[in-house]
């Protein structure tokens, strides 16, 4: 029997996040263009007497270790479908900022699902895994798939996208997180009384991704949640300005924030932006990462 399985799962940045009107069920229709970037959590599972979650990393104290953890929920969902107990110890080595708008919890959900499937020999099909991912959360299917993809619906209906090259990113990690539901609520509040169009992917943005053209992508990056994130966390404007001033091709809030993302022309430009952001004192940590990268991948076991 396999002693343990480890899965590596990337973070994401939204290169386009178009948010439609509030739906009666409380969600929003989205046109959500995801790019997986090389910042990773690693999820290791091993047999255990009952279900247990542990976490290590700079933000570990902010991660719930009970059944509310998305990794635990993933293990429980797979076990229930296959008529078995979720007797597993899930250990998360966390490098993705918590509540940072980079889908860290979703990454752990997808990682635990893939890891438990391998550990238990469940043999779930890709479609079944994607179905469980969609039940767990809007961003979880993309964490499994990785690369670049367009998400419709709540973001869970994925179409893979072609990309023509590697994009160089810098991420400024803010102090503290932002609650995704609170950012959507603020977005609704700021847009109250205005006509909100149905969300559509930008043809120019998809073309820039296909061409691997960073300046063209920079010109059309768009995040409808950015005004809401800035309203809740005005200091992020200073971080965006610091990265732009250091030569980033574009600066935007990543998803619901408060992580900010900077697109650079190449690796040396990314290093320059990273150094300037560190010197600016406007963020807690600075990371560089490339994308696209593959989704959840078994790396040991
Ligand atoms: P998204 O970009 O998908 O909106 P996020 O990156 O902003 O999400 P997460 O790091 O996924 O935010 O965490 C959001 C909340 O989810 C946390 O505050 C925490 O309470 C809860 N959570 C549940 N499971 C996890 C997990 N494995 N890792 C981190 N947070 C988790």
Automatic annotation (TrEMBL):
Its EC number is 2.7.1.148. It comes from the Bacteria. Pathway: Isoprenoid biosynthesis; isopentenyl diphosphate biosynthesis via DXP pathway; isopentenyl diphosphate from 1-deoxy-D-xylulose 5-phosphate: step 3/6. Residues 205-280 form the GHMP kinase C-terminal domain. Keywords: ATP-binding, Isoprene biosynthesis, Kinase, Nucleotide-binding, Transferase. The active site is at residues 12, 139. Catalyzes the phosphorylation of the position 2 hydroxy group of 4-diphosphocytidyl-2C-methyl-D-erythritol. This is 4-diphosphocytidyl-2-C-methyl-D-erythritol kinase. It comes from Streptomyces luteosporeus. The gene is ispE.
């Amino acid at each position: 029997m396999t002693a343990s399985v480890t899965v590596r799962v990337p973070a994401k940045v939204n290169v386009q996040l178009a948010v439609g009107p509030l739906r009666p069920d409380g969600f929003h229709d989205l046109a959500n263009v995801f790019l997986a970037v090389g910042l990773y959590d690693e999820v290791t599972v091993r047999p255990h007497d009952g279900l247990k979650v542990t976490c290590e990393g700079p933000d570990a104290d902010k991660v719930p270790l009970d059944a509310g953890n998305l990794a635990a929920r993933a293990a429980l969902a797979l076990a229930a479908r296959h008529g078995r107990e979720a007797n597993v110890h899930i250990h998360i080595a966390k490098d993705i900022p918590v509540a940072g708008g980079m889908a860290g919890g979703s990454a752990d959900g997808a990682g635990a699902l893939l890891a438990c499937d391998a550990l238990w020999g469940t043999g779930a099909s890709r479609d079944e895994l994607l179905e469980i991912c969609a039940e767990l959360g809007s961003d979880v299917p993309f964490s499994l798939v990785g690369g670049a993809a367009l998400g419709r619906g709540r973001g869970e209906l994925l179409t893979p996208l072609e990309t023509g090259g590697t994009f160089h990113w810098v991420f400024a990690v803010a102090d503290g997180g932002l609650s995704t539901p609170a950012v959507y609520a603020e977005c609704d509040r700021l847009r109250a009384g205005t006509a909100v169009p149905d969300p559509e992917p930008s043809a120019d943005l998809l073309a820039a991704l296909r061409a691997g053209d960073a300046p063209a992508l920079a010109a059309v990056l768009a995040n409808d949640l950015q005004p809401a994130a800035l309203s809740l966390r005005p200091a992020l404007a200073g971080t965006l300005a610091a990265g732009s001033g250091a030569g980033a091709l574009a600066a935007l809030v990543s998803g619901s924030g408060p992580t900010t993302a900077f697109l650079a022309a190449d690796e040396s430009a990314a290093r320059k932006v990273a150094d300037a952001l560190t010197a600016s004192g406007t963020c807690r940590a600075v990371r560089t990462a490339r994308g696209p990268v593959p989704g959840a991948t078994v790396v040991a076991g």
